[in-house]
Amino acid sequence: MAIVPCMANREKADSAEALRFAGLPAALLDWYARHARTLPWRIGPGERARGVVPDPYRVWLAEIMLQQTTVPHAAAYFDKFTRTWPSVEALAGAEDSDVMAAWAGLGYYARARNLLKCAREVTARGEWPRTEAGLRELPGVGPYTAGAVAALAFGEPAAAVDGNVDRVFARLLAAKGDWKDEKRRIAETVRALVPADRPGEFAEALMDLGATVCTPKRPNCLICPVHEWCMGRAEGVPEQYPIKPAKKAKPVRFGEVYIIWREDEVAVERRPSSGLLGGMLGLPTTDWREGGVPDRADWAMVDATSIGGVKHVFTHFELRLDVLVIESPSELPTGIEFQSAGDVAAALPTVFRKALKLAS
Ligand code: SF4
């Protein structure tokens, strides 16, 4: 099948790479037609041409969930969310606490708060924006998600460039320059290659290539449908790409977390709506600070048994919490409630789940 490049995008890009990769989209789409992964939020290859229209709600929800997590992990949450809230309107009408509890374990909880804001905004508007620029105006929708939803759900000639696509193109281009500049060059190259007639399938094909063939540690160049364009492979060591600047060590914050039992119930509190893990249920805890464990609150100045520690890595810091069991506190801070430990665990963010597991 002839592939029609998107000329509007092509004009924007420096076309040197676009011309060099001119045959790549057709080869990639041909491979995708035979090897596409079956995923619950997707339509299959060629289905759009047969009039099947993807549900933007499902596409958007999946893309938000898939940021920073794996397909199998996200798929379970996707199933739970779409059963509970089968449409964007249903999600918009959900209780905040129910959505935050359903999101628990997916991490990056600001995304869950933005998920609700976005659902409510789309519902208030009465429809989804269809373009990349329009989608960017929605809460929590960044450049990658806007490109992905525009291409996958609406067939707009938009590019969806995430870390996987960066890796594939860093190898194709044997990108050795400053990583910021190379990322820009990669984005321009991908944009210029998006086929005007099948942008969604092109985006999905790149995602599948990165997930199944051009994997981070062991790219399988022998079966790669685009190997003839790959400069990294021609050099012999494609896995050395992308060449990124060394990551700085994350700062470490310390704190205490308290397990307070009442028979088989445990004390939990709703965290403030803004800030880290905002709006989620949590276990009572001190502040988390660099340099050492902060002072305990007055109510926690009682006999407490240390049962070990848990470690959790957030985007910007590593957290180390001492876990203490308090048997009979003289008083409790306001906002504490007791919930069944078995039931509440699923609604707790991972760091608190780890602490509760240690105490169970
Ligand atoms: Fe990745 Fe190898 Fe394909 Fe290049 S040839 S894109 S390194 S799998």
The stretches of 5 or more residues where confidence is low (pLDDT under 50) are 6-13
Q: How many DSSP-defined strands? A: 7
Head-to-tail CA distance between termini: 60 Å
The ordered string of helix (H) and strand (E) elements is: HHHHHHHHHHHHHHEEEEEEEHH
The general outline is: globular
**Biggest sheet descriptor:** 7 strands, mixed
Q: What is the CATH-assigned architecture of the largest domain? A: Orthogonal Bundle
Tell me the name of the CATH class of the largest domain: Mainly Alpha
CATH topological fold name of the largest domain: Endonuclease III, domain 1
Number of helical segments with 4 or more residues:
16
- The helix fraction, in percent, is 40-55%
Average pLDDT metric: 91
Ligands: iron/sulfur cluster
Count of spatially separate domains: 2
Quick description:
The chain is of the alpha+beta class and 360 residues long. It is 42% helix and 12% strand.
Describe the structure.
The chain is α+β, with helices and mostly antiparallel strands and 360 residues long. The chain folds into 2 domains: 7-240, Endonuclease III, domain 1; 252-359, Alpha-Beta Complex (Nucleoside Triphosphate Pyrophosphohydrolase). The protein contains 16 helices and 7 strands. It has helices spanning 7-12, 15-20, 24-35, 56-66, 71-84, 88-92, 96-103, 110-125, 132-136, 143-154, 163-172, 179-193, 199-212, 231-235, 341-344, 350-359, and strands at residues 252-262, 265-270, 281-282, 289-290, 304-313, 318-326, 336-340. Strands 1, 2, 3, 4, 5, 6 and 7 form a 7-stranded mixed β-sheet that branches. Helix 4 (56-66) crosses helix 5. The longest helix has 16 residues, at 110-125. The chain is globular and about 75 Å long. The relative contact order is 0.12. Residues 6-13 have low confidence and may be disordered.
